[in-house]
Amino acid sequence: MAKSSIKIRAKTKKDVTTVKALMTHPMETGGRKDKKTGKLIPAHYIQEVVCKHNGATVLTANWSGGVSKNPYVSFKFAGGAKGDSVEITWHDNKGGSGTQTAKIK
Amino acid sequence: MSTDMKRRIFLKGSLAAGAVSVAAGAGLLMPQQVLAAWPKAAFEAKSIPDALTALMGSGDTTTSDKIKIKAPDIAENGAVVPITVESSMEGIESMAIIASANPVPLIASFSLSGSAKGFVSTRIKMGKTGDVIGVVKAGGKLYSASKGVKVTIGGCGG
Q1: pLDDT tens across A40-94, in order?
Q2: Minimal Cα–Cα distance from B119 to chain A, Å?
Q3: Gene3D superfamilies of this UniProt entry (chain A) (predicted)?
Q4: What's the gap in Å between the CA of A28 and the closest CA on chain B?
Q5: Distance between CA atoms of B107 and B143, rounded to whole angstroms?
Q6: If you placed Cys at B96, which of A39, A78, B122, B135 could pair as Cys (CB 3.0 to 4.6 Å)?
Q7: Closest to A47 (Cβ–Cβ): which among B38, B112, B119?
């Protein structure tokens, strides 16, 4: 996975920051079969997503393969000002990871 | 003769490459253990109370009208069902999204820190028609709300 596997949009309005993020990941559950070979496609999904605001963890998400392909996640937190950094990091079950930092608009 | 030799060499080479990729695969699997915080038992549980017990320490939930679940009434594509769980409760520690009809019911759990609001939105897969349950842990207690979603095409099979 390339480093730019996450797209982040963060906006502050009335002291509440809304963060929207889109990650690029196949999110295979491990229960799906390859139509051509009939074999199970091995599980490959994001297990943990950590979201930080100015270095402090705001939200930690643990996922199963039940989250859709190319996962989208959105959350809100109190505080946050223009120019603050929002960092999102994911780790998958195969040891892959991705991270991205964005500024609040 | 010469083509045959090349074939041998080629076979040897590809076998060696195969061994290397297996080794690399094993190496790649190692970091899995680093994610000790990932609640494996909860995500392997086949029933909702089991999953909640493994995740939040209790399988008992109280229905609450302070939790709002935003989900479509009919999902045309079960592979992508947008779900938003929102709660106005104070002191939310964690939130979970469960699709009751899925082979692995627990889809996602979110632990919130002090400044995070009781709001999470994501997109999930749903195997078939069933209830989407939002569970909120606040002040050591579990609260839940559910919403039925009709799935036209399942998103778990292949």
Answers
A1: 888 899 999 999 999 889 999 999 888 999 999 999 999 888 889 999 999 988 8
A2: 6
A3: Immunoglobulins
A4: 10
A5: 17
A6: B135
A7: B38
